[in-house]
Amino acid sequence: MEFGAQTEYGRLRRVLMHRPSEELRRITPSNRDAYLFRDVVYWRMFQREHDAFTEALRGEGVEVILLEDLLEGRDGEIAARLPNLVYTRDVCSVTYLGALVLRMAYQARYPEPLLVGKAMERLGIPIALRVAPPGTVEGGDFVYLDRETLMVGFGTRTNEVGLEMVKRTLLGKAVKRLLAVPLPSFRVHLDGGLMILSPDLALIHKPSLEMYPAYLYSEDGVELIFVEDYLRERGIELIYADDAEVRQFGTNIVGIGGGKCVSYEWNERIIAELEERGLDVIRIPGSQLSLGGGGPHCMTCPILRDDH
After folding, report:
1. What's the total number of domains in the chain?
2. What domain range includes position 65?
3. Which of 292, 299, 308, 272 is nearest to 56 (CA)?
4. Residue 49 has what pLDDT?
């Protein structure tokens, strides 16, 4: 199987997703924090909203591979009891070297990489890295600026040990530059405060990126730079999201190529900004999906993308 997805805007050819089901009934008012959910959800509506998302992708010619179709026996039974598996982005990132099977920061998600790793192997995708203790890395902290530049947030879910594992695996091989972005305590993942929509357009939440300088690693060594400055120096236009929009996953948008992307339907001001710049935004419902603590970017693990 062809693989490799190292942009946020190249045409999305193939993606791994997980259709949620009755495992969502495990979320209760008393355990929702342990499960990392914002609130209890109505599982049937959650599922219908997820189905609307997958059908929108398929309608655009994206091959959607469902995780549950790749698991057998007990693995399938375990997957059917893990509410967070719907957020496949966090568990794996597929590079041109192969799959990076990541390691989650919270116990509720510890089993997920084992299952997704087996799915990658069944698809015939080599495993380039399995993040091991004490490292933690979550895919929501990966945002590709372009084919050769990966930005990785660290602090809340991805730690420095995991970041070093990723850097050793990719730098000088799959990417030429790695920008390590320290995140403030209020920012869960980098994709909650930054998204690249095209080669010359980005969406950012300034407070998430302005507290600390980032570390730009390359074959020449390392230098300090603020992310906003770096993007501007690269000639990228910036659209700024406010605190309320970020709370509602305003930056958590997934590009599908051809100038198209997917956003929650209530993201009205940002959608208007994107459409003014020529992007075609596909709106999806998410009143229940968002209660799980993620957006469209979170629910997709790209397996294959074009570079452009």
Report:
1. 1
2. 12-305
3. 299
4. 98
Q: Give the model's pLDDT for residue 308.
A: 77
In a domain, 247, yes or no: yes
CATH number at residue 214: 3.75.10.10
- Quick check: is 6 in a domain? no
Q: Looking at residues 132-137, what average pLDDT do you find?
A: 98
Q: Are 91 and 301 in contact (CB under 8 A)?
A: yes
4: in domain: no
0.85 exceeded by pTM = yes
Q: Average pLDDT, stretch 37-59? A: 98
Q: What is the percentage of the chain residues whose pLDDT exceeds 70?
A: 100
Task: Pull the structure tokens for residue 185.
Answer: 């305590």
The two structure tokens encoding residue 147: 């084919």
Residue 2 covered by a domain: no
Q: Tell me what the pLDDT averaged over the chain comes to.
A: 97
Residue by residue, what is the 3-state secondary structure of the chain? CCCECCCCCCCEEEEEECCCCHHHHHCCCCCCCCCCCCCCCCHHHHHHHHHHHHHHHHHCCCEEEEHHHHCCHHHHHHHCCCHHHHCHHHCEEEECCEEEECECCCHHHCCHHHHHHHHHHHCCCCEEEECCCCCCECHHHEEEEECCEEEEEECCCCCHHHHHHHHHHHECCCECEEEEEECCCCCCCHHHCEEEEECCEEEECHHHHCCCCEEEEECCEEEEECHHHHHHHCCCEEEECCHHHHHCCCCCCEEEECCEEEEECCCHHHHHHHHHCCCEEEEECCCCHHHHCCCCCCCCEEEEECCC
Q: 275: how many CB neighbours lie within 10 A of its CB?
A: 11
Are the CB atoms for 87 and 298 separated by under 8 Å?
Answer: yes
